[in-house]
Amino acid sequence: MRITLDALETLEAIHEMGSFAGAAQRLHKVQSAVSYTIRQLEEALGVELFDRSGHRARLTDAGRLLLDEGRVLLTRARRLESLAERLQDRWEPRLAVVIDGILPMEPILRVLKRMADEAVPTRIQVTVAFLGGVQDRFEKDRADLMLVKDYTPNPALIAHRLPEVEAVLLASAEHPLARAERPLELADLHRHVELTVHDPSGSQRLRNPHLLGCDRVFYLSDFLTKKAAILLGLGVGWMPLYLVEEELEAGSLREVPYRAGSRFYFTPSLVHPADRPLGRAGQRFLELLVSGGFPHAPVESPPPQPSPKRKRPSSRGRRSR
């Protein structure tokens, strides 16, 4: 049996998804077809490629060796496919974008509206995740683009820096912390409930440096829910400034006078794989994001170091904001 790219792609999908069922879903095949491909490959090579004794399908030593070598071929094949589409000026069939939920969605929606008005035929899938879950989903789904607050850089990724985003520590106007008449210490904040957005993926990839470390913490699903909770007086928490400017101006929310700093800044990035150059729809998405979405053009750069933070509080914790 000749080892085909389809067999190698099936092997990779099972490894990354952790199961034959997950691989079938990614590859848009029935599970029996995935199982048959691997069984044929194992019989032809005379070795087992997966240890099927546990909950997850795990590569054997032979399977890992084959996948490591096979990925070299898959990377080259995918580059050739992408190049062929670009040379033919064809729209790619799918554009998958993963966005960090702390970033503004309105610029993304304006880009999608423009592409819809232009009758772009590409199917565009936008997924929202948080913290380390953004990059996990980007890699798991083999997405084309991710807009992310922080990520783990590597040479296989190309990054574009986007304009800085500001975050502010807030409480309701009726909350005791908002009425403080002196600069507050961390111990003062610890007496109250901390509100944070939780990363449901359980990713261990990134730590969150902005948790206050309060004894009582409520984990919420997204920043709009968190904003509603802060307005209700449930607790204190960090919010991106663009989501709360009207409430700050109206006085329903107030900046907490935290001595260590009630604001911090981060520089998000737009990232795509180096081995899969953006196709026509991906390039158009990037162009529109630059010209009409975010206010400044992103500058292509090497993988970024952690974004500089100003007035950042001492804190601990992970997987939440």
Average per-residue pLDDT, rounded, comes to 85
CATH level-4 homologous superfamily of the largest domain? Periplasmic binding protein-like II
Briefly note the structural class of the backbone: alpha+beta
Q: Work out the helicity level.
A: 25-40%
Write down the overall geometry.
Answer: globular
Describe this structure in words.
It is globular, with a radius of gyration of 23 Å. The protein folds into 3 domains: 5-87, Winged helix-like DNA-binding domain superfamily/Winged helix DNA-binding domain (Arc Repressor Mutant, subunit A, Orthogonal Bundle), CATH 1.10.10.10; 94-164 and 267-301, Periplasmic binding protein-like II (D-Maltodextrin-Binding Protein, domain 2, 3-Layer(aba) Sandwich); 165-265, 3-Layer(aba) Sandwich (D-Maltodextrin-Binding Protein, domain 2), CATH 3.40.190.290. With 321 residues, the chain is of the alpha+beta class. Strand 3 (94-100), helix 5 and strand 4 form a beta-alpha-beta unit. It is built from 10 helices and 14 strands. 33% of the residues are buried. Strands 4-3-5-13-6-14 form a 6-stranded mixed beta sheet. Strands 7, 10, 11 and 12 form a 4-stranded antiparallel beta sheet that branches.
